[in-house]
Amino acid sequence: MYKYDEIDQAIVNERVAQYRDQTRRYLAGELSDEEFRPLRLQNGLYIQRHAPMLRIAIPYGTLASYQLRKLAEITRRYDRGYGHFSTRQNLQLNWPRLEDTPDILAELATVQMHAIQTSGNCIRNITTDQFAGIAPDEIIDPRAVAEIMRQWSTFHPEFALLPRKFKIAVSGSQQDRALVQAHDIGLEFFYDADHKMAIKVWVGGGLGRTPILGTVINEQLEWQHVLTYCEAIIRVYNLHGRRDNSYKARIKILVKALGIDEFRRQVDAEWAHLKDGPNTITEAELERVAHHFTRMPYDTLPAHDASFDAAIASNPAFAAWVKRCVHAHREPGYRAVTLSLKPHGVAPGDATTEQMQVVADLADRYSFNELRVSHEQNLILTDVRLGDLYALWENARAHGLATPNIGLLTDIICCPGGDFCSLANAKSIPIAEAIQRQFDNLDYLHDIGDLELNISGCMNACGHHHIGHIGILGVDKDGSEWYQVTIGGKQGSDASLGTVIGPAFSADEMPGVVQRLIDVYIAQRSDEERFIDTVRRIGVAPFKEYVYADKAGKKEAAHV
Amino acid sequence: MSNATPKQLIHGNQIVADEWTLVKLPVLGEEVVRKQAGKVVLFKLTGEPGASAEQIAATEIPASGKVIVPLSVWLARKAELQERLAKGELGVWLATHEVVEALAADQADLNVFPLIAVFVERFADGRIFSIGNLLRTRHAYKNELRAFGDVLRDQLFFLKRCGYDSYLIRADRSAEDALAGLQDFTEPYQGAVDLAEPVWRRRQRNGATA
Ligand code: SF4
Predict the structure, then answer these.
(1) A386 secondary structure, DSSP code
(2) What is the pLDDT of residues A475-520, one digit of tens each?
(3) Which of A241, A321, A391, B112 qualifies as a cystine partner to A237, CB 3.0-4.6 A?
(4) A350-393 pLDDT, tens per residue?
(5) Which DSSP string corresponds to A150-204?
(6) Does the domain made of A306-398 have the CATH classification 3.90.480.20?
């Protein structure tokens, strides 16, 4: 992974000093709340319901074990012994003290980490596929360009105060796992006809209040130009994006207002001046950064391992875990492993100090001292030998990290919601927990099969509810908490946004509603069909009908 | 300028006296205040006209000394201002919702102006950065480029990188303090106006294939 040189280190150190002074001035009354706000936000600090929340950047989801140990230490020393992995591959602390945040950042700087631009109206942490570098369907490893873009976007002076937040995702695999179509800019890497690296550029995607999938603005951009091209896009946005209404300030609104053709024309006009300028990436720079992401020193292993096969045959619990949590690897004899942060009854994405330490140890022992964070809020060890899987499983299981539910209904993506977030309309964590309890039977869960259930506590859609096969959105009706349900959303190359099935439900009703959706699916599915396939085939109506059957009955009865 | 008022202008990395007089458009009648969800909207959308013909005509320009006039006044009253321009006494200012092209459209060489200033009503309005960049790069403007309005220490480093070299710090803040903001970072990553090249072109970096 990328290792800082003295230039990178100086930048994070200077940032700590800058932020320390800003915090001092704020506490001394020299900066108003309004003036301090963007400064703290651009360092990941929110003022939340109970305490500030600090969001720490995990660039494109890659962590070294020593960094995770530092995070563990921070959660113990400055927080309440746990942290929350977010849907944008960051780590959030729910209980730090504002006065401590400069010290936390100083601690992070010692392990080449920071909280730069994890919030605020600027270019945010760049996200990518958690299996980058090892996925069998990968065409191009996007991490080198992601790192080059991280550096370019860090304190980009022209884009320091955009109309609104700006999210970039990169992907280089056949199956998109980075949600490129749901970002302000999505970059999809591929090889062109001459086997040169090229990029398909999507713009104006995003969830939130006005969910919309991105539009292709450039079918084929040569990789050298990615920075200047993004500068052209963001400059047009910076100058012309709306600043009078924060709900209409995202780039997607500008793209819609102008139409993609006019937007593209303006971007091209800007780009004509920037193209081939100094920010054009050189081969040497790409090579320098790519050098940090070279192939791991894999052993030559046979494709099969007898002890592994035997364990699968004799231990159904292990077999179930392998089925859900172990993923293909491009090297023979290696696998990637997802450590589930979704044990039933715990807030999705939360990890305790101890669990972080355990995962760091597992990474050291089994996976070249590195791990990844996924936008599904789980942790991944990317390079585990087949022969080590059983020992890894036993160890992970002992620490509540081996729930065999990856990709299943209880692998819920869930934002912090009303328990923590001051923007929330409704709580989301208790809903996740109630659904996990409803579906606590593992055999049944496996029978239901692949299903993504996403929960957001408000329109901001941090829980990506629009692209959940089942999406749940907290809404406020006359001051009480209600939940609107969508089905048919999907991430990936064939992404789609879910359709609202009808009026919202109370919290108590939610497990039953999900149960009914599943009942319809089980009754209607043909072989091999996943929930999402059934929804796409038969449409929303049969689900809607069954879910609301009772309600309609009650209403009619009431009318009599 | 009286010695009693502290100097608020930073130019050339030091605090200096301001020789320029800012000319503002007169306020005529009621200003329209739009509201959004209970908040007063302070941002004007890009490209909105900056002034009415009436306001432009009513703008009083001091007869002597260095003056900075609004873009709209310059565009409408160019003829009468030529003499001042020739004497090096005329600067132009624009607000962040005005477009640079309006200034550059019939004035191919912006270097006729000894000073161009950009007014930022709220510090969070990042259009000021792109405007600075466009003036310096697209329009090759070389003379003093000033930011004024809600200009605060914590944005100075960005302003500097976007081509500003002159900052009129908001009256209630210390310019002395703000000076430090220009030094927040020693070696920024990306190429911008002040350092056109990204760090990997400026410096030999670890692991580069030399
Ligand atoms: S979706 Fe809403 S409630 Fe949930 S974390 Fe985001 S802003 Fe908060």
Answers:
(1) G
(2) 998 888 999 999 999 999 899 999 999 999 999 999 999 999 999 9
(3) A241
(4) 999 999 999 999 999 999 999 999 999 999 999 999 999 999 99
(5) HHHHTT-GGGSS-SS-B-EEEE-BSS--S-GGGSSEEEEEEE-TTS-EEEEEEES
(6) yes
| Partner-chain contact A240 B46, CB within 8 Å | yes
Range list for CATH 3.90.480.20 in chain A = 6-109, 306-398
A238 vs B: CB within 8 A: yes
Which CATH number does A127-293 carry?
Answer: 3.30.413.10
B152 inside 8 A of chain A by CB = yes
Q: CA angle at residue A92 from A471 to A373, to 5 degrees? A: 70
**Amino acid residing at B52:** S
Q: How many angstroms separate the CA atoms of A472 and A483, rounded? A: 6
Check if CATH label 3.30.413.10 holds for domain A413-559.
Answer: yes
**Does the structure show a pLDDT above 70 at B4?**
no
Q: A163: which chain B residues are within 8 Å (Cβ-Cβ)? A: 126
pTM of the model: 0.92
Taking the CA of residue A413 and the nearest CA in chain B, the distance in Å comes to: 31
Residue A552 has pLDDT above 90, yes or no: no
Measure CB to CB from residue A158 to each of B187, B192, B205 and give the nearest one.
B192
Predicted local distance difference test score (pLDDT) of residue A175: 92
- Summary mean pLDDT of chain A: 94
A280 lies within 8 A of chain B by CB: no
Of B131, B184, B196, the CB nearest to A278: B196
From A47, A85, A462, mutation site for ligand 1 pocket: most ligand atoms within 8 A of C-beta: A462
Q: Which residues of B touch A31 (CB under 8 A)?
A: 154
User: Are residues B188 and A155, on separate chains, in Cβ contact within 8 Å?
Assistant: yes
Q: Are A326 and A335 in contact (CB under 8 A)?
A: yes
Give the per-residue pLDDT at A560.
40
CB A282 within 8 A of CB A228: no
As a whole number of angstroms, the distance between CA A474 and CA A459 comes to 8
Domains defined along chain B, listed by start: 9-23+50-185 (3.40.50)
User: Are the Cβ atoms of A288 and B200 closer than 8 angstroms?
Assistant: yes
Q: Which residue in B has a C-alpha nearest to residue A156's C-alpha?
A: B190
Give the whole-angstrom CA distance, residue A169 versus residue A181.
9
Q: CA-CA distance, A267 to A185, in Å (whole number)?
A: 13
Structure tokens at A381: 């060890």
Q: Each residue of A91-111: pLDDT tens digit?
A: 999 889 999 999 999 999 999
Distance, in Å, from the CA atom of A121 to the CA atom of A151, rounded to the nearest integer, reads 17
Q: Please, which pLDDT band fits residue A13 given cuts at 50, 70 and 90?
A: very high
Atom of ligand 1 nearest to the CA of A422: 8
Question: Which residue ranges have their beta carbon within 6 Å of ligand 1?
Answer: A 415-417, 421, 423-424, 456-458, 460-463
Interface of A with B in 30-69 (CB under 8 A): 31, 35, 38-39
pLDDT single digits (tens) A191-247: 999 999 999 999 999 988 888 999 999 999 999 999 999 999 999 999 999 999 888
Question: In the predicted model, is pLDDT for residue B113 greater than 50?
Answer: yes
